[in-house]
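Lecture 7 notes: from sequence to structure.

We start with a single chain of 413 residues. Read the sequence below before looking at the structure.
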Amino acid sequence: MHLLATKPGGISDGSEAVDLNQSPGDIIILSAADTDLLMLSAARGRQKSQPDLPVPSLRLANIMNLTHNMSVDLYTDSIIANAKLVIIRLLGGVNYWQYGIEQIVHCCRTAAIPLVIVPGDDQPDAELTGLSSQPTEACHRLWQYFVQGGPGNADNLLRYATSLLNNNTDWQEPAPLLRAGIYWPDSGSYDLSDLQKNWIPDAPIIAITFYRALFQAGNLEPVDLMIRGLQQRGLNPLPIYVTSLKESVSAGIVKSLFDQASPDIILNATSFSVSKPNGERADSPLEYPQVPVFQVIFAGGNEEDWREGLNGLSARDIAMNVALPEVDGRIISRAVSFKAEARYDEETQLPVIAYQAVPDRINFVCDLAENWAKLARTEPENRKLGLIFANYPNRDGRLGNGVGLDTPASTLN
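Now the structure, written as tokens:
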């Protein structure tokens, strides 16, 4: 039998079996989201600093490394079969990981191991609840710890999971976290009025929008470096976390913040687009201030593959962070971070994957924001702009050729 070791910063493509090299543990938690695993790894570290707290052994693993059937069989036989509680957070429903769910459900039912399967998003899934062996109330509570996220909820998730093993452990109910809000390094969620106290009067405001999941997990190195870089250039950062730009609550909060502090430039690190390709334009909160929006790419792969490969970003990153954002009219900047193994967590036997920023590329984006902010505040008659078009087609009437695009007319508009 040929097994591969997992690769730091990457995930298995499912073409070959992978051995995660874990030993059995009392509580097993599986998720396809590195942010979930990072959040829980940090919570476990905090648990160990409390000597009076019962601490069952914990194993964390990424479902994306268990896509090969043999990987599932190996992990089920060696880890799941020896567990006292199994928790799975699954995005996309049973069909997303059908073989894995089938084998783990069968194993847990055969060995009477408590099993909880919860959705990977904030939409309930009756099928997953039906496959779980714990009461509906317990499944819902564990799901909400994930949905709300953040250090406090992660701590209580592990405390509640411990209590399910008949341990007398105190825990608190899941605490709601804002769907969107202002973030500041070392301070967590922040009020706009407090943020403005540290701003430079009349300096350009640069908004940074990024996913709430990164805030929940503390996976914020590239955001922190952008904030620092903008400050060093005399700019006022406005970092905003959002659940999704498509969600009405998040969009409303973003618009409200922009009403109170209108940005000169927006640096957006969320993926996809609000509008649909070939469809009518949807109302995006990023378009509300009518300023340039730059797409800042937090790449889903590792830096080594990106530097050594001939294709640059992966097809997935190109779709999520280049092609679709252009549908919303965003200006593509650069990939400023890649996933990497931040550390190996001995307690959970997990290579902790997090975004690792590339400083020179962060600096490029900060310089870009500074220059565009200067341009925006320059009177039109004092601006000097150069536009360069391709003219490779067979006649001049096709200047700047693009399928379905009249480039000269678009430029004039």
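The longest strand covers residues 331-345. Keep this in mind for problem set 3.
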